[in-house]
Amino acid sequence: MRGNTRLRALMLALAALAATLVLAACGGGDDVGGASGNAAETAEPGPVEGEFNFSNWVGYIDKGDGGTVAEFEAKHPGVTMNYNEDVNDNADFFGKMSPLLDGGESGGRSMFVVTDWMAKQMNDLGYLQAIDYADVPNVDANLKQNLRSPEFDPDRSFSIPWQSGMTGLLVNEKLAPDVRSVNDLFDPQYKGKVTVLTEMRDTVPLMLKADGIDPADATKQDWLDEIDKLDQAVQSGQLRRFTGNDYIQDMTNENTVAVIGWSGDIELIDNEDVTWRMPTDGCILWSDNMVIPVGAPNTAAALAWADFVYDPKVQADISDYVRYVSPVQGIEAVNPQLAQDELVNPPEEFTANCSTQPDPPGSAEDVQEVTEAFQAVITQ
Amino acid sequence: MTSTRRRLIPYGLLGPGAIWLALFFIVPMYFMGELALRTGTFTTGFQSGFEISNFSDALSGNTEQFVRSFIYAGSATLIALAIAYPLAYAIALRAGRWKLLLLFAVVAPFFTTYLIRTIAWKTILADESPFVSLLQTLHLVPEDGRVLATGGAVVAGLTYNFLPFMILPIYASLERIDTSLIEAGKDLYASSTQTFLRVTLPITMPGIVAGVLLTFIPAVGDYINAEILGGTGTSMIGNVIQSLYLEQRNYPEAAALSFTMMAAILVVVIVYLRMAGTGAFMGDEDERD
Which of B32, B232, B251 would best serve as a mutation to test chain A binding (most A beta carbons within 10 A)? Predict the structure, then answer.
């Protein structure tokens, strides 16, 4: 009897504890998600010193001895740079960061790199700080003309391109010599040997282009029709997987013979039969951008870093290592070989057919509807 | 004084566990439940509400993945049991001085991270790999068929990754077995099979039940194996939840689906324990037969 009372008392105490915790946690704010309406602050310059945390995608810099990070630290002896490769997927990274950014925190990151559409989305939510070009003179001087006023950030007020790239075809020339258009991926002879990207804004626009629809003019129905076509390709077993850049392993091992892939990744595929091909229907152009989040510590170091990598001498090394399209002009003078490489320095006629990476058309609800339809096909 | 103290000891012992449970189970559960009932979209914010339809929406499009999760996890559990029992038996009763080394070999893969071990299977099961060629020669896989990026690869990955959770509890119960009972069975003219079925197997039932639970429950909710070793049409419920949460940012539906899955697992486990008997799990002699 007595034990029972005690048990009840214990239970009550636990319930009270739980309730206190719940109330304490709820006090922070009742809404999950939604625009927080932070007024855009401008990143503070200052003395370049202290700890600097930078988050980037995998394989986007030479991290080794004498690499770019080491050079930066040598230039600014007071700085300890932590270069983290913890961005793998825009939506994924957003999912991880948004609860923090919502509360004005950046998780210790001074700067990170996301693709155009994600940079816009974060800025719309008030997650990013503005950048004053007086603080980054090299960027002001050396950013390529064609990247200076993209639709999503006409004044480049919150984003500085890290690298640009082209989404097109990675083809094994021995096993699938005839794949030249994105539509060739749907040829039954390659059944189970082709993959497309989980990045909807690459896969669907490329399919639109292959079907003769300019992504800039495409309607929501056009997007849904292409997603339906993907669905049929899943049902028939034509598509092997949906991938991020884990297609690298499948192409190296010849599990796949032709895939939708990103231009610079050709450098990471250890199989000499594989090349990156510009689809006959054209490619998708995009940039990954350095952005400074709200709550970022040490914005001075972040600004100094952006300025540093826009020095053509530094950029030439990065470019040579990653083989994506460099956003910095003048690197050809430093390393003339780069001028010849059409993946690093694509001539205008090479990309004439390409489109900048689009969002699905329409309102936020329309975008959500298209996203859900695409995700439903991926997660079958 | 001492008697009060003695009466308080059990609560003191319960304390850390209870606080842990409250902090990391009850509180998160409350938040998840509350989230599962919210309305709205990510851009407008999710407002508190009582949106029961989140549950039906979460289920309606995903029944196939739901069923698949249970089939994959169930198959992996059965295969793991078939592999684990003889292995645990051999280690516990036949290995002699090799016992420790063999046990170490069972646990050794854990020194590498889960992710790396799973990715390694991509190389083992690659289309042109010797292993797959062998399967093709034996006509276990069609000539133009593959293993990687199929449901079979996902089940294989699940089996491999959770196998030690099956082996260790079974080993523990076999280790403790009083071998004179087996000898007694033989003395009473039972065949080896009969002795095994009527003596060894019942005694080790708690280990089997624990192993099955430790394998099945995490396997149902796993998404890494389907993500890395699977292809199109092999998504499990974990992949759907991941997509709902991170890609579609539909937090309420993701929470609702998580809840539904938890309930479904609970039902399956209860039915299983009813059949196996909770006594078997607790090692309670009276309830076993």
Answer: B232
Among partner residues B22, B44, B228, which is closest to A14 by beta-carbon distance? B22
The model carries a pTM of: 0.87
**Cβ atoms of B64 and B233 closer than 8 Å:** no
Residues 6+ positions from A149 with CB-CB distance below 8 Å:
A155, A156
∠ CA B145-B224-B120, nearest 5°, is 60
Cβ distance B212 to B219 under 8 Å?
A: no
Output the pLDDT for position B117. 93
The interface predicted TM-score of the complex, written ipTM, equals: 0.87
From chain B residues 203-222, the ones with a CB under 8 A of any chain A CB are: none
Task: Quick: pLDDT tens for A6-49.
Answer: 555 555 555 555 554 444 444 334 444 444 444 578 999 989 99
Residues near A315 by beta carbon (within 8 Å), at least 6 away in sequence: A142, A309, A326, A328, A331, A334
Q: Dihedral (C-alpha) A334, A339, A341, A345: value to the nearest 10 degrees? A: 100
Task: Convert the pLDDT of each residue in B86-99 to its tens digit.
Answer: 999 999 999 889 99
Q: Which of A35, A237, A379 minimises the CB distance to B239?
A: A379
Q: Which two tokens stand for residue A36?
A: 């927080």
Q: Which residues contact A68 (CB under 8 A, 6 or more apart)?
A: A61, A62, A309, A314, A317, A318
**Distance between B283 CA and the closest CA of chain A, angstroms:** 26
In the stretch 124-153 of chain B, residues with CB closer than 8 A to chain A read 126-128, 146, 148-149
> Cα distance from B111 to chain A (closest Cα, Å)?
22
Q: Which residue has the tokens 């209860």?
A: B270
Structure-token pair, residue B168 = 């260790």
Q: How wide is the angle at C-alpha A65 spanned by C-alphas A59 and A67, nearest 5°?
A: 55
Q: In this complex, is the C-beta atom of B24 within 8 Å of any C-beta atom belonging to chain A?
A: no
Contact (CB, 8 A) for A117 and A90: yes
